[in-house]
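Sync notes, pocket subgroup
Present: LS, DG
LS reminded everyone that the earlier model was apo-only. Rerun requested with flavin-adenine dinucleotide included. Inputs:
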Amino acid sequence: MNRVESLLEELKNSLRDNQVSQNGTLLEQHSHDESYHKPSPPDIVTFPESTKDVETIVKIANAYDCPVVPYGLGTSLEGHVIPYDQGITVDFSEMNQVLDVRESDFLVKVQPGVTRSQLNKELKKYGLFFSVDPGADATLGGMAATNASGTTSVRYGVMRDQVRDLEVVLADGEVIHTGNLAQKSASGYNLNSLFVGSEGTLGCITELTLKVYGIPEHIVAARASFLSVDDAVEAVVSTLQAGVPIARVELVDEPSMKQANLFSETNYKEEPTLFLEFHGNEPGLKHDVEFTQEIVKDHNCEEIYFEDDNAARNRLWEARHNLAYAYIHGNPGKKLMVTDVCVPISELAGAIRHARESIDSLALNGGILGHVGDGNYHILLMMDLDDPDEVKKAEQLNEQIVEYALEKGGTCTGEHGVGVGKMKYQEKEHGPALKVMEKIKHALDPAGRLNPHKLVHNREETL
Ligand SMILES: Cc1cc2nc3c(=O)[nH]c(=O)nc-3n(C[C@H](O)[C@H](O)[C@H](O)COP(=O)(O)OP(=O)(O)OC[C@H]3O[C@@H](n4cnc5c(N)ncnc54)[C@H](O)[C@@H]3O)c2cc1C
């Protein structure tokens, strides 16, 4: 019996049969994420149903000196879940219970495999909602592990702002809690923040306590089209500077509006567009909406439509959320590459101008969109992986966009995370602080078994 066969047998002896698999389709499914990064299958996929199961898997993996890769839904975009050293993928889809809704504390306790739409369906019964909404219907464990954000982060903050406590199984199998239920705490190092965004490299998240919000009394959405992307971006900056508490503000450029119309069967104007949303009570919103109308007009807004009907609002946001899928379906056979920089808001207009010039000068076809209220924007490129020239140009574009963002005091990734794709920029972005991150990784996972070759290099690679 070889090592993987013995490992499989031990896992099967310790878990139930249907929790451990070497099925070819499952191995393939867990060999990739939604990106262009090269796939590689794990040896074994496991489906824990409890923290105890995760503890067992990690301890067995240690005994076999075998890598462990946590897996939510595989929607990440920088190769995060690809098991390059094979080993065990831990798929959290069976840990999918909403455990406790503490209405009066505005907190919810969930297992990591709960998806954001599943959680919102449950919270709706209590008049509550969870704010973070990445384009994919990701799991909350995966979202915490990547510090995800979405269209509402301009108002409610990113994943890191929502996490009150995590239960984590560490590399040695020990179970810890990183926080508590209190609104604030000055007690010790902030371990919540350390584990949020750690991309499965420091531990497996087995439970999350998250902040939730009351569903606003009144919601108004708007769609504003502009003559140029520059005008749209300047309008966002002016609106934020004027202190209008926008709940969502998303930029979609002209090529992306075309893709959205094709995919979502909408007939929105195919011009640079801002999708906006305002939350509050009726009199307050009336004032915010009027003020925004005045501001966007000063920035050559061609037309602005407001939607307070629920169905029209949902259609609008569905079109925005489906944009990446619109590109994927509109370009069969090609793979998605998404840039993801974030810059200080004052640098946003210049950054997007530079992005468009870079796309055009490399003769690539790419759409620009993003959570512009946070200074975070993406270029969506569909690449033919069999065309080395196209791949080279796409990589060159990504590099130019990152270099520009770093020069302006920004970051190489606003929300998608590092995975394998952004590791090459870590030294430039963090300088000597990267060594601190490596020391943390080596202190918590000395053997480098948790999601190896992601975020920071394994010890032998840094020596
Ligand atoms: C169409 C599309 C649109 C997107 N839009 C956005 C967006 O607007 N904003 C945004 O932030 N992201 C966006 N993303 C990226 C993606 O949805 C996020 O990165 C998401 O947070 C990943 O969640 P997941 O459940 O799919 O995790 P996975 O992809 O399965 O895993 C992601 C990482 O988390 C780790 N992980 C997963 N579960 C756990 C756990 N329980 N414990 C420890 N580590 C774990 C994995 O090891 C991996 O490193 C988009 C992706 C797509 C395909």
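DG: The CA atoms of residues 341 and 413 lie 5 Å apart.
LS: The longest strand covers residues 203-211.
Action: DG to write up.
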